Amino acid sequence: MTPVEEPRRYDTVFFLAQAPDGQVADHDRVETVSARWTTAAAALAAHARGDLAMIYPTIRTLEEVAGASLPDLRDRARAGWPLRPLLPRAVVDADGRVVGIVPHSEVRA
Known about the structure:
The chain is an alpha+beta fold. It has one domain (about 1-80). About 25% of the residues lie in helices and about 15% in strands. The longest helix is centred in the middle third of the chain and has 10 residues, at about 40-50.
């Protein structure tokens, strides 16, 4: 979930799907500006080097699936992979701008 300090609030959900053989990555040129096929671990490494900008929900999701095989991920999804809402805290400067994110805490129902 978006930090409570953010003026725009939303939840983000990611889906797991296997791409058909020969699938070509593409993007919508509006919300996304480039596309590539890569592994979760490679995307996280590129982000850590500063070569790939990612937002917090994407980073956390990739951390959760990095290193898992496609069959393992499918099995977890079919078994009802538990959704754990996460609520990071925003770091806000004196002008009210978000300047950082403090790691998440699990949201308890």
